[in-house]
Amino acid sequence: MTTWEKDPAAAWEPYSPARDGAWDLARAAHLHRRAGFGATPGRVAHDAKAGHEAAIRAVLEGDPEGPGGRSRSEVEEIAAAMADSARRDPSLGRVRLAWIFRLLNNPHPLRERMTLAWHGHYATGARKVENPLAMLEQIEAMRSLWDAPISKLHRAMIDGAGLQIWLDGVDSDNEKPNENLGREFLELFALGEGSYSEADVKAAARALTGYRSENRDDLRKHVVFDPGRHDDGEKTLLGRTGRWGPADLVRIASAHPAAARRIARRLYVTFVDDVEPPPAALVAALADRIRTPGDVDVRQGIEVVLNSRLFHSEAVRGRRVKSAVDYAVGLIRSSGWRRPTPDPATIDVHLTRMGQTLLDPPSVAGWPGGLAWLGAPLLIARANFAAEVTAGQGVESHLRGPESEGRVSPAEWAAAVADSFLAGGRSRADDIRAASPKGRVEALRLVASFPEAHLA
Fold this sequence. Notes:
Layout lengths: L1 H5 L1 H4 L5 H4 L4 H11 L5 H10 L1 H10 L10 H17 L3 H14 L3 H13 L4 H4 L2 H13 L5 H10 L1 H6 L12 H12 L7 H10 L3 E5 L5 E5 L9 E3 L2 E3 L3 H9 L2 H15 L8 H11 E2 L2 E2 L1 H10 L16 H11 L9 H10 L22 H14 L5 H4 L11 H12 L7 H7 L4 H10 L7
Antiparallel strand pairs: 1-2, 3-4, 5-6
Helix pairs in contact: 4-5, 4-6, 7-8, 8-20, 8-21, 12-16, 14-15, 17-18, 17-19, 18-19, 21-22, 24-25, 24-26
């Protein structure tokens, strides 16, 4: 990273094959691992041939159909039906299954990548919220606003029941403002440490008063804004004085110079490197590119990163550790698993064993990420997942996609999957040939066992 830190502006310039190294299979695979959850060998080869501009554009826009052949409309129809089932008979399990189905099948994996990133950014724990529909609404808002200006996402999260219950906003009124939501909003969501004062925390807490919960005929807890509970007095917030409320807090915070740096840091950790802390110079240079008058342009940030020299450099290859979701979903999507894909309920159980229960991060800071994913018990759980998900009748045939229909040997197929799924730029073709797997199940388990399988 040292070279890029010396010239941070150059790091975010557009990648050029002539200057920065040829666009090839390794770079195409890297794009899909980082911007989504991996892609089939055939898709990676197609994008390597199509060129970097076409490949990046396709990632940003999504595909007509998912990896299992379902059209975008079919995926949406099934996912909507699963969400409706969760609404009729609410449970966290149903909400998680609907999301796992999307992770496995969405033709626009970048949208799910960012939904997962925002889930870590506005980390909300279901164990305290105890409201499956509030969690469903929060995730759906994150998916809908995945690339929206940050002020829109901030406002949707603050108005949502999930974050309000999680951070005690519903217990905050004009007589006794609760500082929890205001503090976390400034520190974790909007600005970051060192960008606000204790006086700002108190002012933010007062601005956020007025939310309360109420029960309705649908037997679920709703959160509404009650002006009678709101402190409408004058407040000085981040240097500006007025009778501020929730919308004003979002507007003022989103226009603060630190707002772009906070989101630039999130994008850096999501797409570039989560092993080492993001270098301040690189974060600042990216922030300069996404700061707009009064807001932060998330879409612009994603496009800058995915097109950048830094993103496509070998220096960042393998510098992100796969989360449990990355590992499980990536193994299935990269292998071209034909329908039916593994049961989302099975994946849900294994995600918990691998340390990532969706909708229930361990703290308001989300999952620690990085090397924390590589503890011995978690690696054992990953090995158990790979063994169990490939067990049972029919799996061998499900791994024989239309790209090959069995015309290549298990070793050749595994080498192609390895080039897509593994990070680090090292070919494992010789190791796979030496192991001489007898079938695709054995071959996929071999690929999943390599150390590079845990890096993106």
